[in-house]
Write a structure and sequence with these properties.
Rossmann fold; 15 strands; 2 domains; alpha/beta
Amino acid sequence: MNIIWITLETILPANSGGRLGVFKRLEKLSKNNNIFLFYPYDSEEDVEYTKELKKYCVDVKLYFRPENKRKAYKGMFRYPYTVSSRNISAMRKDIEECIAKNTIDVINVDFPHMCVNLIGLKTDIPIVLNEHNIEWKVYRSIAKSQRNIIKKFIYFIDSYRLKSYEKKILKTVCPKLITFVSDKDMAFMQKSWLSISENLALKLVPVGADIVHKEGQKKEKNTCNQSRNIIFVGKMSYGPNIEAVQWFVKNIFPQILSRYPSAVFYIVGKEPTDSVLALQNTNIVVTGMVDSVSEFYNKADLVVLPLLNGGGVKVKLLEAVSYRVPIVSTSVGAEGTVYSNGKSIFVSDDCNTFSKMCINVLNHEMGAMLREWPKAAPHHHTVRLSQPAKS
């Protein structure tokens, strides 16, 4: 098949859950299909990955998003900024030319934001929309957690505007199929919006992760006098990730330090904000972007997922399980997966319970309490995320 593939940003380096999921699907589908890839990018550094992407695609076209931002502010009267900044006339023109020159069988769109470039497109080519999250629900969740009144107001307003926009594209772009990584998101769509568009099919396409076999890297248990290494992995300019590490540092880590004064918390991920960098001290390391997360998983005694907000399936959870490192998570961190408390991971939203779980794991006392440990990929692995991502 000939596939036009439109996505939110450059997908290399695959240093976030969203990028990794998109890249692994593209990598697999490119083996038997011709892919024409279109996406905006934010940094000149992203251009260097074009050559790598051309190994998988017949053609790659990218558009410098900052050049569109002035127009985006004007377009905010029509769309939320996250959408209007990706409303790129040059991309729309190139998509039309691609359709005119090639027999395109399907248009695949990652993230509803990018559907803005298909509004008004006159074609009978079936369109597939991949809903990584229901975006307006994510914004609503972030708004509720904001302490800054202005930011709370902005997120609330944008959540309503995104909801209106997402309904609009169901009517105007008319996708034939919407895929989800979360069964909860799919059930919500089926209940709430399915009546908006006729002949709309929904399908669950879960993400997964292969178990990482670390031959020759077996980690010895620390003695009581040794340090304990705790890690969190994620894009550190993303609101829910910032909120997560701040909550952990304030409410959980002090209790861990009272038991293990030399414990180190590694915040591993690209684009740390000033508020995240401000957390650094003797016991807290903010790495910024790293070449590979493997070295951190290999030395970790514990992975924490203290997420309070955010939607969809957390690829960071599946990645952590693939390394067979003990995990303590909030219910949000485990959302959309088969895992629950005591079933391969430990889950609690209570500060004291979360802290006790972490300490017991670091004491090497809780491994035997797990009811099972996955022997295969930790989900219905329609998409297999077998390569460790950069972060």
